[in-house]
Specification:
397 residues, D-Amino Acid Oxidase, Chain A, domain 2, four-stranded mixed β-sheet, FAD/NAD(P)-binding domain, eight-stranded mixed β-sheet
Length: 397
């Protein structure tokens, strides 16, 4: 089978890319291959559901630009397609003097990233959220919540409406880039395409290697564990509640997040996962672990952050520790309130020198476009990322 465009990956980034290619190229033939039996089975369907405003990202980075554009774009898309969402706003809460100082740096970054914010003192914070305590907070009104799995399913419907074909249970075995076409071999069939787009998420490095690309990085998976609060505390807060993050660490900390369908979750932490799809504590994939353990950058990363890794492991093993992380700003949460909820795994690119790549990574060859690094806020940023991919693939001039 031969097509104009072939897209690998049925997450929100792959679907956005496919949708925008077809919008720009009416009549083009496009096939999307997904190894699972449906869309949004991994990062897209297992994240916190937050529509990020772009507070945390380095000014001038793709994340800062695409998150700011994407936040508005995803809400517009939801409005056009009757997808429920709520622009509930976010409070970033400082609980001590050090966090207040860090909050000042965040406030400056918001200004540089063109994000509207409001600084609150302790009493103003208490007035807005009676169950939250702190020395102060930043209020970010543009943040919101949505079910990204639903957004992805609507995008999939749009791809099909525009003439694209989605094929599931298609595991990629080989990718060969030629002078005029790219051959993609699955466990069932081989396809030929004039242009290939790869949005492999947790498997981005493996797909790059299949395509014959050399990389100076590897994918390291981090599991984020969530809990759900009981119905009695479903309305404990009206906004998203985040701690002030430690700038030396790559993750945002345990936060309270409203769900688009109702209720509250607490999380995530950030545990090294022993497999790309290791959603449970007991999951272990020997090949995945051997892959990142053989990469020198992994050990350099662990050497830099072993203290925080130990703390995350402690919170994963102890619900009391996990609850204590949230009680810093929400003292009404007790360990008995932590009910089971699904976890997610973050695909994180780590370089040979042990540094994490924080920005989005999109690279191209003559006939391929690879999205290498697309962790949070990729869901929020999925529409501008998809447009960029469509441009790199030659669909948008």
């Amino acid at each position: 089978m031969q097509v104009d465009y072939l897209v690998i990956g049925g997450g929100i980034v792959g679907l956005s890319s496919a949708m925008q290619i077809l919008q720009a190229k009416p009549g083009a033939t496009l096939l999307l291959l997904e190894k699972e039996d449906g869309v949004a089975r991994h990062q897209t369907g297992r994240n916190s559901g937050v529509i990020h405003a772009g507070v945390y990202y380095q000014p001038g980075s793709l994340k800062a630009e695409y998150c700011r554009i994407g936040s508005s774009a995803i809400m517009t898309f939801c409005g056009e397609h009757a997808i429920p969402f709520e622009q509930c706003g976010k409070l970033i809460v400082a609980t001590d003097a050090l966090e207040l100082a860090r909050m000042g740096a965040l406030e400056e970054r918001c200004t540089r990233n063109q994000i509207k914010i409001e600084r609150l003192d302790a009493q103003e914070l208490r007035n807005r959220e009676p169950n939250i305590i702190g020395n102060g907070a930043l209020y970010v009104p543009s943040s919101g919540i949505v079910d990204y799995g639903l957004v992805a399913r609507v995008m999939a419907q749009e791809v099909e409406r525009l003439g694209g074909v989605l094929t599931f249970n298609a595991k990629i075995r080989r990718i060969t880039e030629g002078a005029n076409t790219v051959a993609v071999e699955t466990d069932r069939e081989t396809y030929q395409a004039k242009s290939l787009v790869v949005c492999g998420g947790l498997h981005a490095d493996a797909l790059a290697h299949m395509a014959g690309l050399e990389t100076d990085w590897t994918m390291v998976p981090f599991r984020g564990e969530y809990f759900k609060l009981p119905d009695a505390k479903a309305d404990i807060v009206k906004h998203l509640i985040y701690p002030v993050p430690n700038p030396d660490l790559p993750f945002l900390g345990v936060h309270l997040t409203k769900l688009a369908g109702g209720g509250q979750t607490l999380g995530p932490n950030a545990m090294l996962a022993f497999g790309r799809e290791a959603y449970r504590k007991t999951d272990f994939n020997a090949a995945d672990v051997a892959g990142f353990a053989a990469f020198p950058g992994f050990w350099k990363l662990m050497g830099k952050h072993w203290k925080s890794a130990a703390a995350e492991a402690f919170s994963s093993l102890s619900k009391y520790r996990y609850a204590a992380l949230s009680r810093k700003y929400c003292p009404d949460i007790d360990v008995k309130d932590l009910l089971p909820y699904r976890s997610g795994v973050r695909a994180q690119v780590v370089k040979r020198d042990g540094t994490m790549v924080h920005d989005f990574m999109i690279e191209k060859t003559a006939r391929m476009v690879h999205v290498f690094n697309a962790p949070s806020p990729a869901a929020t940023s999925s529409l501008p990322i998809g447009r960029r991919v469509a441009q790199e693939a030659g669909a948008i001039r």
